[in-house]
Structure prediction request, 628 residues.
Amino acid sequence: MSFYDTYLKYKDFDLNRDFNLSQLTTCLNKDKLELTDFANLILPLDGQHLEALAQKARALTLKYFGKTIQLYTPIYLSNYCSNECIYCGFNLHNRITRKKLSLEELENEARFIYDTGLRHVLILTGESRQESPVSYIKDCVEVLKKYFSSISVEIYALAEDEYADLVKSGVDGLTIYQETYNENIYDKVHLSGPKKDFRFRLDAPERAAACGMRSINIGALLGLSDWRQEVFYLGLHAKYLQDKFSSIDFSVSLPRLRPQTGNFVPEFDVSDENLVQAILALRIFLPRLGITISTREDPLLRNNLVALGVTRMSAGSTTYVGGHTLDYSTHNLGSSSQFEINDKRNVLEIQAMLKEKGYQAVLKDWMQV
Amino acid sequence: MAADILEIAGKEIKSRLFIGTGKFSSFSLMREAIKASEAQVVTVALRRVDTSSKQDNILDYIPKDCILMPNTSGARNAQEAVRIARLAKAAGCGNWIKVEVISDNKYLLPDNLETLEATEVLVKEGFVVLPYMSPDLSIAKRLVQAGASAVMPLGSPIGSNRGVKTEELIRIMVEEIKIPVIVDAGLGRPSDACLCMELGCSAVLINTAIAVSDNPVNMARAFSQAVTAGREAYLSGIPSQGGSASASSPLTGFLRKEN
Prediction:
């Protein structure tokens, strides 16, 4: 049994339910929401009802997470990739400069980030077992351990023993997005490569959880399918994981598709209101769930999301390999990013924004033990 | 009358309000709240302490006259709690440690068995150990045997603000446990803290209710006053509420009647 079985059970769940909005208050006042309540929270809402969700979500976030937001930054290790994902800049057919950081270059990145005060990093690679095998990632972790108290990976889906190997080497967090929970669309947007295996990716978080990964962040790439469907299955997945692995911190991301190299245009529109409703519904359904918002979103929206349920933000981000320290022009890296970032503020600027909003930026929230 | 002083590991503690440092909007506001509370024991999650950073360090914002009690927040088992305690000592945070072992992230309820195991190890290593626990009398007795300096049963789940849901169990612990019983977690209002003190608890630890209130400084002061009030009431001898009214015609009155 894995999440795939649960997913199949709810595959035909009717999300266009008949629900009287006057019952929303009853739904919001429940101590513990059922899956059907969660489905109600992502139905089309007017502004007044959305505000009611926001008030509830804010109160829950304050209670469980306080006035703090944890910060981290991504480090791109390599953009070599053997997958053909039509929405991604690293798609193997895209003619971009391919690069993999040497350990020396990585150490430069580490020093630069360390000086910003951040102690949590997320390392990323494209899927290339040849260019960025697990052994390379472990070598990178060895370098990073000297500087950071928490190292998360966002890499291709691994087998359980490989996750165990990474945990042993000092990795404490995993980020892995399902991209889309719609199996048919998944098949259509992942044209070729190992990532084409929907189920292997879907069950990756629990393979990592089974070998003691401390924190796991899952997500759906909004824009590939109807956002309500994605958010519903994301919530279902998060609840399944929380129930099965109670000692692990789970969080979710709701990245919206951003422009990248290639010509992909998302088929489904996801408005700011939709994104906000998704965040609020997830917070109310699973009050202790972490919610991460990346620099894919613009500064103004990110500022406003702080009070609504978000618990973790990236800062000083770049999606270029070596982007923290390398000069793009001299390294001919012009168009080799994974996607365009929308919020280019550095760590100090994000800290200042949080301070102004009455929130404390948490730069360290774990340590290697 | 002798001054009412709480003594833990040879330290004399005047304030029976202990403060937690998470969830505040800034370190400076946290410091102001601690000052207003007049607390002398302050707990800090070691996971949040970064002595290497050029930026603000949380420890610099804890008044120097306070006793620092690092906690092992984040530990999922005894082994991790022990390692965090050692790291705390190595980082210069002293030898007091609040052992917190939580393997359930849904309700944040402590794992008493792992807590006991960590306490046994840390006491032997010379730590002053204050374990956070679910209020279970037999585990509390074992913690005493293991050398804990106090026991810290929860009032209700961390951050829940639900108050003293475990009142009956805490009442029994106060009766039976001869080391300080300090209620930690779940106290949402000053009246909750006051109730704990009326029950005879030695102290309470508050974090969320102060940190996320609209005015943490005033709320810290309010908790301080409530703790003082509850303690004074306890020391003054709170009249028993009694189970039934006393009969105006006593049942044993005939024994004293003449004839």
